Amino acid sequence: MHSVWQEWLGSQAPTEILKTGDVAPAAAGRFIPLSGFALLRASGEDAQNFLQSQLSSDIRLISSQSAQYSTYSNAKGRMQGSFLIWLYQGDYYLLLKADIADRVRQRLSMFILRSKVKLERVDAGWGLVGLISDEALSNHDATGLKVSATEREVRIQLDATSALLLFESPQPADLARLATQMRLADEAFWTLRDIRAGIGWVSAATYEAFVPQMANMEVIGAISFQKGCYPGQEIVARTQYLGKVKRRMYRVLASIALEPGQPLFGEETGEQAIGAVVESVALEGGTWEGLVVVQSAAWEEGVHYQSLQGPLLEKLELPYSVD
């Protein structure tokens, strides 16, 4: 997060920041400065072709008005990163988890070779805010991942009630203006938003843990099965066409904190792990909500956290179907 925003946030009284256990008035939206994400920028005349050759989505479909989810995998099809990508002033911007940003940039840069592409981390020059409303955000198209931009501001509409807002060269006045319209909220609100939307981000804890379909990436449009080759493409295609995906990502409720990357177990497989935690967030009343990747068949006997003696997880609904 940009230092000037950190200073502004530090000046706010803790009681003014909504937590996930708080309930804001129905008409009040929430704005959430986000520090858990980073930005990569791919520029140069070969940027589109380079990204097309490395990522799982069809980069050619991205325009200045539309964004796209995507993934990056190793040769075995295991994800090393997941992204939200858009085009701004002729360059591609890739949003990803901050704790893997440098690692992913270095890995991708190995394959630039003689391509006319510059790949750099640029989040130090941007401010990122999540917007959530209990009612539809007005005056913005809520169909698909629509992008609108001005000289120093980019807005990505994720769904009817949530959007991402990015400020180039952010200023304290940006947050102060939002504070006159919405309530300042803790970043956990945004984590909960992604969990309930079924968006599972690759993080340091889940690096190379999952094939894209295990995290439902084809459901959210992050995989194209019509494009050419990219790292892991053979595994991704084989998983899609030659057999049922045995592990899927599910939304769950738990009685204790769920740590990303921690294993899950089922009665039939004994001490052999059947999945792992993707993300979680604390709710009021001492419960936790999260996303997990687990063998689909294991729900019949129950899914346990960390060991067979660990607490059972309760499966909740996602906004899309995976079974």
Automatic annotation (TrEMBL):
One of its GO terms (biological process) is iron-sulfur cluster assembly. This is Folate-binding protein YgfZ. InterPro entries: GcvT/YgfZ_C (IPR029043), YgfZ/GCV_T_CS (IPR017703), YgfZ/GcvT (IPR045179). Transmembrane segments: none annotated. It comes from the Bacteria.
